[in-house]
Write a structure and sequence with these properties.
- The structure is a homodimer of 390-residue chains.
- Chain A has a six-stranded parallel sheet, with helices on both faces.
- Chain A is of the alpha/beta class and 390 residues long.
- Chain A is built from 16 helices and twelve strands.
- The longest helix of chain A is centred in the last third of the chain and has 18 residues, at 346-363.
- Chains A and B meet through helix 7, helix 8, strand 2, helix 9 and helix 14 of A and helix 7, helix 8, strand 2, helix 9 and helix 14 of B.
- The first copy, chain A, binds a DNA duplex (30 and 30 nucleotides) through helix 2, helix 5 and helix 7.
Chain lengths: 390, 390
DNA sequence: AACTTTTGATGGAGCGCTTCATTGCACGCT
DNA sequence: AGCGTGCAATGAAGCGCTCCATCAAAAGTT
């Protein structure tokens, strides 16, 4: 009727009158309306795209049982007699019936999907997190849906809203920046939320964290254990939390090592592929007795870049200077000298996040937010330890 | 009541009788049931996680309008008087109302999400595809949900079912292997499906493809244009379609170049990080006059591995032998010598897939399946062309 | 055999929304 | 004033499912 009204150039009300109270409508208008009806009568049939999933009603009809029984066959098969169950399943098979998850979660008030919003799918860590979350979710017979906010706050918010409106069972968020607003947004209606890889300190939700202080500590400690005595820490100038923590870990390792070990801290303007040259300039500018014999880069990408720049400057790695990065970033796997790194256990983080989510769902009102700190591990390769004998 | 029955160890029917026709129930059973009721009475209150999203009814009440009007305010704001609209919006704001997408798509029969099932999120190409699809979907005011099948057919099927049951608007599939079964599964009920990066030849759905023949052609042609005359093509032994096509492209380029150019084809047992050594052995085993001066690897990972092995064997790249890969894989970005490659335009592929999906939705019954072939592009870096002057 | 109890199946209410025929009302025209 | 019209709002039907009180028949018990 709305279409007819549009086509006839009158309001819906007029069409209604034309049909039910024709005497109220001026003859000319009446004619217009009837013409429109006539015309649409023809074109109406064709634009049905025939997207016709069978419903439980059809399954019930074919199986010769009631809708309730079909529902039971699906969700509580133990309450259905084997013979009946078989009939229902045959009907489902025959019709190719796939339950409508929307109707399910509407009626049941529960969903079996969890949402994961990730800041950057291009980064190995987050792909690993997704993989771990996926695995853990599957083990709990839940589905995991992933969205990539691509380092964009607006997208991140949009995706949180999306999951909220889909009434997912819970959301795992690997945020770009302080996720406070996002947390509020999601928790407003009690949707369980776990934040991964960001410590907002407020502890008003469950959190899965990397022990970034330990990342730095493991790295520096490794170099010291190798007998290196003049360490360099290279990171970017900005104030990102993980960077500061890693730096703190490096400092602690150096402090613990006592006076025999020195530390130089170098800054770059970024951690990308091309910042190695600048670092090497700074290194070479140092007086020989302060020149580092070991260098820890805040990321693998930066580390690889430094290795290349050092080699370009005629220094050998690891003989003259041992180099390592952090993150176990796949983008750095192809380096000339395989890079020693501190590996973040992304899969474990993702799995832990899903477990926390499940706990929050189960515990309900009694839930107390928890924080899981996943320990990184040292991965020694040639850039620090030299080529292994073959 | 189901809970009570479970707790009392009787059937639901018995509980019903106990409540409505107690005389029909044996006293002992009656007592059990009442005990169970008593017990659950206490624990019932606490496990309500208070996950209470306001519904449109509440919004309507607060705004002092009917539910229909709230719906109109949301979906057809132009049909609502500004003053009313403002009241409704204020109520939505005040209650923190988020529409229930499940109910929406149930009632409206339409969903605004599309699903993307990807074979390997660890691979840059698919991350790019996801990014491109995301962008195009956002532009059409649709949401994109991603799942990672992680090279596992069972997971892929599970994810297709998931999207099917969520009644998404359409599915984009980047399959592991021949997606015939998956296609059947999804199309059975008319869900639009676009397959990316796999050509099954049957053309019973829309497809977005890389011109893999051209990938090989561009690569070999680049080497020939650089003046190289003895090319090597390195690929794994298996029979994957894209590999064969790339090989065909290489052959064509060599053929076109005429008799001055030779081609050696080498096989590896895989394309991973450690297969370079073997390739180099094969290369060195060739008589000097047949030894290649240019090498095209089927993937970047293999290419980087070859570069390292060559350097390890004392050969220089690109002087002695130019090397390149294919794919523009991020995992190869960190190589000692930046690797020339043929770039697959993943973002463009993802965007094209979403556009095809949209077209299929719009065209409905009249839709004819289309095939979009996205052209790869050559990315020249140092491993073939030498270090650019600074 | 006469009863109680259990099992297995039923059918209807309701989840939160969209859609749309219907209506009340105000406006403009004669 | 009175008719015809358009606008804005209403309210009920129904989307596909789950849940559950209820019941008929089968299975036990005495």
């Amino acid at each position: 009727m709305v279409e007819v009204a549009a086509s006839a150039g009158v309001s819906v009300g007029t069409v209604s009158n034309a049909l039910n109270h024709p005497h109220r409508v001026r003859p000319a208008t009446l004619a217009k309306v009837h013409a429109a009806i006539e015309q649409l009568g023809f074109s109406r049939a064709e634009n049905r795209p025939a997207r016709t999933n069978p419903s439980m009603v059809q399954v019930a009809t074919v199986a010769g049982v009631s809708v309730g029984t079909v529902s039971n066959a699906l969700n509580h098969p133990e309450q259905v007699r084997p013979a009946t169950l078989a009939r229902v399943r045959a009907a489902i098979e025959q019709l190719g019936f796939t339950p409508n998850a929307n109707a399910r979660s509407l009626a049941g008030g529960e969903s079996r999907t969890i949402g994961l919003v990730v800041v950057d799918l291009g980064n190995t860590l987050f792909v690993d997190i997704a993989r771990g979350a996926q695995r853990e979710a599957a083990a709990r017979r839940e589905s995991l849906l992933v969205t990539n906010s691509d380092r964009d706050d607006a997208q991140q918010d949009a995706h949180l809203d999306l999951f909220e409106s889909a009434r997912v069972r819970g959301v795992v968020l690997a945020p770009l920046s302080d996720p406070f607003a996002g947390i509020q947004r999601v928790r407003r209606h009690g949707t369980p939320l776990v934040v991964v890889n960001y410590d907002d300190g407020r502890q008003d939700c469950c959190t899965v964290l990397v022990d970034n202080e330990r990342v730095g500590y493991l790295a520096a400690r490794h170099m010291i254990d190798l007998g290196r005595r003049r360490l360099a820490w290279v990171s970017e100038l900005n104030d990102l939390q993980p960077v500061r923590e890693r730096q703190a870990g490096v400092r602690r390792a150096v402090r613990e090592a006592g006076r025999g070990v020195d530390l130089v801290e170098l800054d770059t303007e970024g951690v990308g592929e091309n910042h190695g040259d600048h670092v090497v300039e700074e290194v070479l500018a140092l007086p020989a007795r302060r020149r580092p014999d070991a260098l820890v880069a805040v990321t693998d990408i930066l580390g690889v870049s430094v290795v290349e720049a050092l080699q370009g400057a005629g220094l050998s790695v690891p003989e003259d200077i041992a180099v390592m990065g952090c993150d176990h970033d796949a983008r750095a796997w192809g380096g000339a000298v395989p890079l020693t790194t501190v590996r973040l256990e992304g899969e474990e983080m993702g799995a832990a996040a899903v477990r926390l989510l499940a706990a929050e769902v189960e515990e309900g009102i009694d839930h107390v937010h928890r924080r899981v700190v996943v320990q990184p591990s040292l991965l020694v390769r040639e850039s620090s330890a030299g080529r292994a004998p073959r």
